[in-house]
Amino acid sequence: MKFDLIQKDKATKARAATLETDHGVIQTPIFMPVGTVASVKAVHQRELKQDINPDIILGNTYHLYLRPGLEILEKAGGLHQFMGWDRNILTDSGGYQVYSLSDNRKIKEEGVTFKSHIDGSKHFFSPESVMDIQRTIGADIIMAFDECTPYPCDYDYAKRSMHMTHRWLDRCINHFKNTPPRYGYEQSLFPIVQGSTYKDLRKQSAEYIASVEAEGNAIGGLSVGEPAEEMYVMSEIVCNILPEDKPRYLMGVGTPINILENIALGVDMFDCVMPTRNARNGMLFTAHGTINIKNKKWEADFSPIDEMGITFVDTEYSKAYLRHLFAANEFLGKQIATIHNLGFYLWLVRTARERILAGDFSEWKTTMVRQMDKRL
Question: What pLDDT does 94 receive?
Answer without folding.
Answer: 83
